[in-house]
Amino acid sequence: MVQALNGKTALVTGSTSGIGLGIALGLAKQGANIIMNGFGDHLGAKAQIENLGVKVLYHGADMSKSQEIEDLFAYCDHQHAPVDILVNNAGIQYVANVEEFPVERWDAIIAINLSSAFHTSRLALPHMKKQNWGRIINIASAHGLVASAQKAAYVAAKHGIVGLTKVTALENATSGITCNAICPGWVLTPLVQKQLDDKAKALGISNEKATELLLGEKEPSMQFTTPEEIGELAVFLCSKPANNVRGVAWAMDGGWTAQ
């Protein structure tokens, strides 16, 4: 089978587990070499990707620090692996009312969920422009399109990611560089599984009932999006048929934002 991304290098931030790992695996299946990043068990995740027969590198840059992001790109250049495909996935969450929201939590969420995508994009674009081809995929959220209470920093950052996506797409509209955002609803990652376990324990109910309650609040399909599905959408956005998909905030949320 022809692998559409042979010879391309993809940097996926926050790719040691969950959505980021799902995307890295999806791109690797199409032949892309992967640069991993994240604080999780990168050795286990790296082995999964290497099993697909591609080259895998890892850099543990803290995406809240612009200097470490610059170090990450210097590492890519040193490894002769300039970034053709950039997936901005790294993110964190915190829940509290605005007046009770810790300032340091706000600053951290904006830095990791929003500012890091600006820094990676500004550093990736020169190489993409030089070759007149590139793909920037920003992982936003349904919360990049609508809001929920107690998630001020996360919602602000994800709305910002959608805005940054549109501007980046417009600035490169006549080139071979595209920029789009994926906006998932609930995705069954280890983090969300923990939320389900905690909800079930707190309410004294089964995990199945906790899942129904969680999905029933927002997601009409009553099913999770999977990291693998998001990975497949990322592959499509890197493909030739997606050449004119530009500046889109692609909802993948089981109807959440259709309501």
Question: Looking at the structure, what is the overall shape?
Answer: globular
Q: How confident overall, as mean pLDDT? A: 97
The CATH homologous superfamily of the largest domain is called NAD(P)-binding Rossmann-like Domain
Number of helices: 8
Q: What is the straight-line distance between the termini?
A: 40 Å
Q: What CATH architecture of the largest domain would you give?
A: 3-Layer(aba) Sandwich
Count of separate structural domains: 2
The biggest sheet amounts to: 7 strands, parallel
Number of strands: 7
- Low-pLDDT runs of 5+ residues are none
Along the chain, the helix and strand elements come as EHEHEHEHEHEHHHE
Quaternary structure annotation: single chain
CATH domain class name of the largest domain? Alpha Beta
Taken as a percent bin, the fraction of beta residues is 5-15%
Query: What is Rg?
Result: 18 Å
Q: Which structural category fits the helices and strands?
A: alpha/beta
CATH topology of the largest domain: Rossmann fold
Helix content: 40-55%
Structure, described:
This protein is of the alpha/beta class and 259 residues long. It folds into 2 domains: 9-187 and 226-258, Rossmann fold (3-Layer(aba) Sandwich); 188-224. The protein has 8 helices and 7 strands, in the order βαβαβαβαβαβαααβ. Strands 3-2-1-4-5-6-7 form a 7-stranded parallel β-sheet, sandwiched between helices. Helix 1 (18-29) crosses helix 8 (227-237). It starts with 8 loop residues before the first strand and ends in a 7-residue tail after the last strand. The mean pLDDT is 97.
